[in-house]
Hints:
The chain has one helix at 2-19; strands at 36-41, 44-46, 59-64, 67-77, 80-89, 95-99, 105-110, 119-121, 128-136, 141-151, 157-168. It is mainly beta. It starts with a helix and ends with a strand.
Amino acid sequence: MRSFRRTCSLLLFACVVAGCSNTYNGSTGPVNTAGSFSAVVDGSGWSPTADQSGQREDVTTTYANEQLQIVAYRQPSTNDQTIIELDLDGITESGQYDIGNTYSRAIFVDETLSSADQLYSTNANYTGTVEIDRFDTLLREVSGSFSFEAENQAGNFVSVRSGSFDLYY
């Protein structure tokens, strides 16, 4: 009887652990990043949504070789997609990081515009910051806030303010 209880306990434990696992992509860690992401773009609230086909998550986060990339997608309809992307280099701990230089940047894509005007990017004139409040490599969590201004090829700019994220990578 004792052996039966022990076996049942082990099976129950294995089922609980298996039910709590994330989706993994080899050695790079979880692909699906549950959490939160939001911003204010040119004065309007912005939050990500999954694409209409269900083929892509609304936010993806990757971290490798001290490089953190967060990409958030918003696609309320088939031809109406916007993207906020944060590409940060040299991330090893919590702190404030500048974006708009050669190594770290922010991008906003508005696919409702003509193809030449869709991509807004930070640069020497339009910059921003990312404040990482929590960076936990053991739990693979990152949270913080961001703001930036970015420019497109036509010389127009977009303002992204009050951004926040709390994600797993």
